[in-house]
Amino acid sequence: MKNIDLAPLYEATEKHHIIDSWRDSVLSAFDSPEEHANKKLVAAKQSFTRMMMSSKNNGSTDYQLWAINTALGLKVTRGYSAQAIGKQH
């Protein structure tokens, strides 16, 4: 199994304050905000890893950016900024 560099994913979570957003969006009476954010981060890491290991990965920066934005539920807008999309957090 190929090792996937998760640093770009973590940098994006910090840049866009994703963890804080996930903490603030707790919808379950059973999860604390921290547990909810941790579950979302684990799911994002798994999704990012799958995409980076895909045979469709051409090794480009654009593919990596797409994988990060998809895993984190971000939508790339003009000017290369990103915003959260309406996915359930």
Please outline the helices and strands:
Blueprint: H1 7-15, H2 18-24, H3 33-53, H4 61-72, E1 74-76, E2 82-84
Antiparallel strand pairs: 1-2
Question: Explain this structure to me?
Answer:
With 89 residues, the chain is mainly alpha-helical. The chain has one domain (7-84). The protein contains four helices and two strands, in the order ααααββ. It has helices at residues 7-15, 18-24, 33-53, 61-72, and strands at residues 74-76, 82-84. Strands 1-2 form a two-stranded antiparallel ribbon. Helix 1 (7-15) crosses helix 4 (61-72), helix 2 packs across helix 3 and helix 3 (33-53) packs antiparallel against helix 4 (61-72). The longest helix has 21 residues, at 33-53. The N and C termini lie far apart (30 Å). The model has no long low-confidence stretch (mean pLDDT 85).
For the structure shown, list the relevant keywords.
two-stranded antiparallel sheet; 89 residues; single chain; 2 strands; mainly alpha
| Distance between the ends | 30 Å
Strand and helix order: HHHHEE
Strand order of the largest sheet: 1-2
Number of separate strands: 2
